[in-house]
Amino acid sequence: MSGTSDPKDLAAKVESGDLRFHELEEHADADTAAAARRLLVEEQSGASLDTVGDYGFPAEQADSAIENMIGAIQVPLGVVGPVEVNGAATSGETYLPLATTEGALLASVNRGCSVIDRAGGATARVTKSGMTRAPVFRVADVAEAEALVSWVRDNEAMLKEAAEETTNHGELLDVTPYVVGDNVYLRFRYDTKDAMGMNMATIATRAAADVVEAETAASLVALSGNLCSDKKPAAINAVEGRGRSVTADVLIPRDVVEERLHTTPEAIAEINTRKNLVGSAKAGGLGFNAHVANVVAAMFLATGQDAAQVVEGSNAITTAEVKDGNLYFSVSLASLEVGTVGGGTKLPTQAEGLDILGVRGGGDPAGANADALAECIATGALAGELSLLAALGSRHLSSAHESLGR
């Protein structure tokens, strides 16, 4: 690449019309290009971008994660724990990294982790896995729709072969048809191993859709028909799952609840029923929980996940009941879309977040690291739910925020 090392020269070429804003990396290294864009934005907006421009890794390492880079936003990163996670993919004491700007969040989750640890740790399991993409096809009428559904059921092996030719790692698990008038939606579900897998699923489904068009009378309208459903609240993800469905639970002795949480198992169980279950139902909520999104978002930011998929990740149900005088507590996340390879996981700071959990890169066997990450996030969510419900039970929620100055 031939070019300039002077950001001012690059910025001048954009202002003169000789270069476009997005073309700067073709004429300079990534850091120089980012500096030139900062100059242009500062001139247009009057803002000072000195802090945004003070980032801790070469801009070229963010090349696959962003376009038109001008710098980096730094979100405070903390840890909670260590907490015992008794998972199928991970086991032992671990710190959980959370990146957030919400004061008191880590203090609350850390309290939950402490109580879980006193109870012997959380048990966590991934119960279902599969990334989905659902194209929509147009047919002439319902008879043709039924014919397409029958063809798909008879030729799933052909679709599997076409889809898997596009990837070295992905595996097509099944195809589920849905008919609405002259629309046929085919919900493809893939095992994407340690990748979150949205791009993998999209490319593979494109190849399978070509086969459908070549072999049937159906016409592809859109590669995504919103029945996937990605980055939108959707009941189908709550019922069928997307990404990883993961549950964490713990049995907490009564004396630990009373001494550490200053409430009782009965109080927490009642609050959970009246707030998380009945209250959410009355509100028409898809998530029956207190604040699972808080932990999911913070751990997503800390480990390089797609932040928009917090929408699906917070689709969770919290349960609480008294068993032999003790507190049984669980949280089930239906559609947690996570990966430990690709996307934002390649950024140096986010990769270090994965290192804290010991799950950076591909797992052995494939998929084990992403499963472990899901188990850790579920454990963090469990801790957050427990602490918040206990604060409500002891009526300490507002005082905790006041004492921390939040």
Structural features, described:
The protein is of the alpha+beta class and 406 residues long. The chain has helices at residues 7-16, 30-45, 105-118, 142-154, 156-164, 198-215, 235-240, 254-261, 265-283, 292-303, 310-313, 348-357, 368-394, 397-403; strands spanning 77-87, 91-99, 122-133, 136-138, 171-180, 183-191, 219-222, 243-252, 316-323, 326-336. The protein folds into three domains: 19-74; 77-129 and 244-403, 3-hydroxy-3-methylglutaryl-coenzyme A Reductase, Chain A, domain 2 (Alpha-Beta Complex), CATH 3.90.770.10; 135-222, Alpha-Beta Plaits, CATH 3.30.70.420. The chain contains 14 helices and ten strands. A hairpin with a 2-residue loop joins strand 5 (171-180) and strand 6 (183-191). Helix 9 (265-283) crosses helix 13. The mean pLDDT is 94.
Key features of this structure:
3-hydroxy-3-methylglutaryl coenzyme A reductase; globular; Alpha-Beta Plaits; HMG_CoA_Rdtase_NAD(P)-bd_sf; HMG_CoA_Rdtase; alpha+beta; 43% helix; 3 domains; EC 1.1.1.34; 3-hydroxy-3-methylglutaryl-coenzyme A Reductase, Chain A, domain 2; 10 strands; HMG_CoA_Rdtase_CS; 406 residues
